[in-house]
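Form 12-C: Joint structure prediction
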Amino acid sequence: MDVFKELNTLNEKQREAVTAPLEHIFVLAGAGSGKTKVLTHRIAWLLETEQAHPYQILAVTFTNKAANEMRSRINTLLKQPSSGLWVGTFHGIAHRLLRINWQPANLPQTFQILDSDDQLRAIKRILKTLQLDDKVWTPKKVQIFINAKKDQGLRAKDVVINEDDAWLAQMFSIYQIYEETLERTGTIDFAELLLRTYELLRDNPALLEHYQQRFLYVHVDEFQDTNTIQYQLLQLLVGTLGKLFVVFDDDQSIYAWRGAKIENIQSLNHDFANNRLVRLEQNYRSTNTILKAANKLIGHNQGRLGKNLWTKYSGGEPVFLYSAYTETSEAQFVVNKIRVFNYERKEIAILYRTTAQSRIFEEALLLQGIPYRIYGGLRFYERLEIKDMLAYLRLVQNQNDDGAFERVVNTPKRGIGERTVAVLRGVARQQRMSLWIAARLVIENRQLKARASNALTAFLDLIEQCEKCVHGLQLHEQVEQIIIKSSLGEHYKKGGAAEAQKRLENLEELVNAARQFAQINPSSSTILTEFLSHTALEAGVGQGSQYDDCVQLMTLHSAKGLEFKVVFLCGLEEGLFPHKNSLEEGNVEEERRLCYVGITRARQHLYLCHSESRYRYGERELCKSSRFIDEIPVELIEEVRA
DNA sequence: TCACTGTAATTTTTT
DNA sequence: ATTACAGTGA
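Section 2 - Result
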């Protein structure tokens, strides 16, 4: 790249951040102020004028989408694929470090990642064996508790328990058993990826020094979303040698619910001395009207760092407001409007608070034959049949994976019922062994009736056969073989016609995904392990989009970082947005920031929609329009009719 | 052991 | 409305 030519495309503030001397740089970047541009240009600047080597550069994002975007923009800028440069999500980078350093991290080489669903199942199993009242100790609550502790960097054993607090004591004891279980099964959950990586570096000084010397330039996107353990990890990595470059917007902090600490922004100044703050407040995205609406809305929040976005674009059409009678007419209005616009369809987005709202828009779009793409919702690798197949693969690769064992031991049905599995669980727990080994033992000791024993033996043989037969095969052939051997394919053929077809197609798609994965990644003996991790870390968002030019449907959370010519912000109703749960927890400000994110996605046209009534739990409920609508000055709004 | 039936709970967002 | 789960009979 011609650095100096590129610099001319930046404004003064952006240039200041990109060409800043080698200190810690904090960039307060408002929506649409070109933060990704600054980040990518900074990296290019380091490479071209500071003689940095690609392998000295680390760039961390929060979503896979953002990571991919950044990687491709860096490549475009450098006019070649950048090798050696690490760009990824916090979880992706932690995973990479753990794979390389599995031994000092005290992990088996084939360790696997549990997604939220796997984690919840593991917790349910533990609660069942402990025979606790599942009204008091709901799996969800336990899951939230454990993840919160891990996000704070706390192990069960690290915490001093006040014996008076029976609830807390019980929670920690569950946490402890959970930790032991995961240890035994060779699996780790999402939060553990971060915590384990933190401990790995903290407890291995030589290793830490190695990475500190390597990653001299650490970049973090969306810094306002970091949680405690992520912050601590950054502190370790940057050390005294490294230079930190963070980009953040406190008004777009929307992940407090999963442990993001907005206080981390304040800590920066103290923990990383010799720093420089650059403010990007010029917006290049939206019309002045849209920006004014956004500024006024977010002005209702207290304790902001404070900034005022401005733009050179004057005026723009008003923000349109549509009040529907029902959610169906809301969707109809949106779809009719979409037909009028003469833009590319991918320039149009329908945004909503909850995934459940997508269905009604999907139906309306389908009816009118408008191509659309839904982000989020049930992702490819989360589908039932895919999870089943992945469980077979996991079990073939690591027989101690109890979660995988339980999932497929009787799928498809092979006569191993609850009773038999209960016996295995009992033995496994008593002798602290995996279900697989317990099964072996139980068969040897003839603890089961002949019928159950035979069925179980057949299952164990099946898995071992699979293990033998996939040896030396290509990754996608391994998947293909196991679909056949496990007779999962057969199994799904039997279901309802249309649904069964879909499931079979998905299994076929999994084979394709494996083929693609093997093409992108260098072949190695651990490719199956890596593929399985990939399915957990990137739940397969890109699968199955048939058209390129589609109307974009997504939740407000997944819209962060994107922009569209036309935005429909839907379901603006009290209880839905702001969501009831947030109101109860007193988190209206985060909901408002979410609304701010939504509004600032729009370049030219913004439609706010709400419905007077909505189906919930099978009943029609009356809905009040959202307070957020009232917080936008009326002179910016124009009511429209269908 | 498994299919069937009735009842209770469920819906915030993502790695 | 849809789904998950527990209880019941074959």
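Section 3 - Comments
The longest helix of chain A spans residues 497-520. Residues 615-619 of chain A lie near DNA strand C (CB under 10 Å from a C1').
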